[in-house]
Amino acid sequence: MSAVYSVDIRIEAPVNDTEVTDRVADAVQNLFPEADPTHQQSALVAEVHTMDGFSELLHRREILDTARSVFFDNLEGDTFAFDVKKQAAFEGRINFAVGDPSELGDIHVNVTVTEPTAEEYIDYVAPPTEDGQPVYDEDT
């Protein structure tokens, strides 16, 4: 059984003068296949309502624990945010950005969860693991 989630996800990626806009759009869509970025000032912006594609990449790369740590470290109320490296996204990989932004700028993702709770949505996107394997709640 699958729960119904109500989430608003805003993705912003800076586009530098030295970059090709379509390549930056590809980077965003590699992580968020549902995204349809639009050019606004010097950035691409997209709104999506699912992180399913992103979650699949987390599972495939086996970086669920890292993702959970980043998400919970940046959780405030019903919202969490994180940055990912643009260069890795070009290659279809997730590399969380910590510290100073990279030279090209990072892709910023802001997630607001309306239902159920942000914690439950994080568990859905990046479930807890045991011995490196996802542990799913019996109810999901």
UniProtKB/TrEMBL annotation:
<dbReference type="Pfam" id="PF01877">
    <property type="entry name" value="RNA_binding"/>
</dbReference>
<protein>
    <recommendedName>
        <fullName>UPF0201 protein C436_15019</fullName>
    </recommendedName>
</protein>
<dbReference type="InterPro" id="IPR002739">
    <property type="entry name" value="PAB1135-like"/>
</dbReference>
<dbReference type="InterPro" id="IPR022803">
    <property type="entry name" value="Ribosomal_uL5_dom_sf"/>
</dbReference>
<comment type="similarity">
    <text>Belongs to the UPF0201 family.</text>
</comment>
